[in-house]
Amino acid sequence: MLKNGTAGVYVGSMGDVQSLYTDAANINPNVELDVHNQVAGPDGQFTVWSLPGYGNAILFPKSSVKSEEELKKILAFYDYLMTPEGANLIYWGIEGEHYTIKDGMAQIKDQQLFDREVLPIQTLEIAEEETNGRLKGYFTYEAQAKAEELFTDNEQYLIEDPTIGLDSPTFIEKSVSLQKIIDDATYKYIIGDIDKKGFQAAVEEWKKQGGDQIIEEFSSSYQKKK
């Protein structure tokens, strides 16, 4: 809807702006996009949630990996992804085909080709440029360059998740369905379908359907770890 001009706001990752612009410009060459994330809360302060320091858990079941030798080959592949060469391959693609080197940084050659062949496998990246040594991106599109700057700027305002490392069986069981309650209420509040009372009612429903139990279990887990 943003690409064809039906919607005026996209709520998502700022890093998506390049792909959104590439597709939108094919429909309307005069389209202009910008990124913004420093939205202050009710207290006038801007904050942003912190990533936990890891991505997905990767498991190697014995039903699929039959021998120690095979497991070592798989682990060697993941070790390779932690090298600059492997990280650049999984994140930027093939040099000369998907990107070129510009001022020591990776510049995408063809955004549509990159989106089709490289972007889907970026989720396989292990760690990030600070630890795996991959190239930083070189962006000529002003909004994309601004997004990269704001990503770095976010580090000044991070709020860490205090539940990382704590246990809650109810969270494991119900987190997806409970999160949908909050997500739906958030979008409805943004577009004006509900007011603050409606949003708070969603929070109370979240608590009723398992949120209170999650809070209790996380609190208990925290006390045990102290």
What general form does the structure show?
globular
Question: Which ranges are low-confidence, i.e. pLDDT below 50, for 5 or more consecutive residues?
Answer: none
Percentage of residues in helical conformation: 40-55%
Tell me how many strands there are: 4
Biggest β-sheet, characterized?
A: 2 strands, parallel
> Counting H and I runs of at least 4 residues, what is the number of helices?
8
| SSE order, one letter for each helix or strand | HEHHEEHHHEHH
Span from first to last CA?
49 Å
Proportion in β-strands:
5-15%
Q: Structural class, please? A: mainly alpha
Please state the average pLDDT score.
Answer: 93
- Any idea what the radius of gyration is? 21 Å
Q: Output the strand order for the largest sheet.
A: 1-4
What report would you give on this structure?
With 226 residues, this protein is mostly helical. The protein has helices at residues 17-27, 68-81, 84-92, 111-117, 129-132, 142-153, 169-190, 196-225, and strands at 48-49, 99-102, 105-108, 158-159. It has a domain at 169-225. It is built from eight helices and four strands, in the order αβααββαααβαα. It has a two-stranded parallel sheet with strand order 1-4. The protein has a two-stranded antiparallel ribbon with strand order 2-3. A hairpin with a 2-residue loop joins strand 2 and strand 3 (105-108). The longest helix has 30 residues, at 196-225.
Summarize the structure.
With 226 residues, the protein is mostly helical. The chain is 48% helix and 5% strand. It has a domain at 169-225.
List the helices and strands and how they pair.
Layout: H1 17-27, E1 48-49, H2 68-81, H3 84-92, E2 99-102, E3 105-108, H4 111-117, H5 129-132, H6 142-153, E4 158-159, H7 169-190, H8 196-225
Parallel strand pairs: 1-4
Antiparallel strand pairs: 2-3
Helix pairs in contact: 7-8
